[in-house]
Amino acid sequence: MNFKKSSIFISCIVFIFLPTLITSQTCQKSCGNTPIKYPFGTGPGCGDPRFQPYVICNNQQLSFKTHTGCYPVTSIDYNNQVLYINDPSMSTCACTQPSKGFSLDGNAPFSFNDDTVFALLDCATDSSPIYKSNGNGGVNSTFPMCDSQGATVCSLLYSCQAISRLNLPISTCCVYTPVDLGPAFEMDLEKLHCSSYSALYGQELNPQAWKYGVGLKYKFNFNNDYPDMCESCEKSNGVCGYGGPYNSFLCNCPSGFNTSNDCFLGSSWSNSFTTVPWQTEFLLINALGWFMILALM
User: Fold this and answer.
1) Which residue has the higher pLDDT, 135 or 68?
2) How many domains does the structure of the chain reveal?
3) Among 104-108, 137-141, 177-181, 293-297, which is the least confidently predicted range?
4) Please, what is the angle between helix 3-22 and helix 277-296, to 10°?
5) Is residue 155 in some structural domain?
6) What is the rounded CA–CA span in Å between residue 226 and residue 220?
7) Does 107 reside within a domain?
8) From CA 270, how far away is CA 280, in angstroms rounded?
9) Cα distance between residue 224 and residue 222, in whole Å
């Protein structure tokens, strides 16, 4: 191979490897104004694969997805591991409107946080399954999923101007507790014969100051231990992710490289490549192909 061919070959190698050097970090540390930390991610390959189908970042808006809809995430309390979402169709002290209800997917890695209260509004006391009749056409008790101590929540809600205009008796309000929505995590208001619901947390005496939304508790794993590999990755300015056929742990670095450990400067190029075998193989095959073509020229 003469000098001209050698120069062309070296240029081709640089051309092949240069995109890898300038690739930006795939997994971002925020979605809009919401900081994103493990176990959540901004796209496929980011965060924990168990959470990726449910918490999604689209057009810089973080949303929570279930089979009943897609709901905006209002905040994430990483210290207490609670994700808060809002259902625009629910009723609040400022606005009342019809709703279909809210449900969790049965296999989703979430549960309802203890401070979340569901109040079913405008329920048909003569036909709703959450009420039991005394046999004389009246209502003398409620089904166990209704909280007999929820009268305070109901009375405060029904005192709101938006709801009081409907002139509904307080008996048509029912507070769900414990908040498990049954084994299917399903709150079907049509089946319950209720027209709407409110979900709230951080209760105060003034319902207009209530925080309306649903708090969802999550765990990192069975023992709720923060993964050591992820902690090391984040300390090195990386973002925890996954990849490969078995969704193995990967640390996504600011350079665009994925490693199996961290992004500290002590990691050399070769180390970064060897930790992602498929990437190494792809680049070597390309380099070998160019070498063979130039050798035959």
Assistant:
1) 68
2) 1
3) 137-141
4) 160
5) yes
6) 6
7) yes
8) 9
9) 5
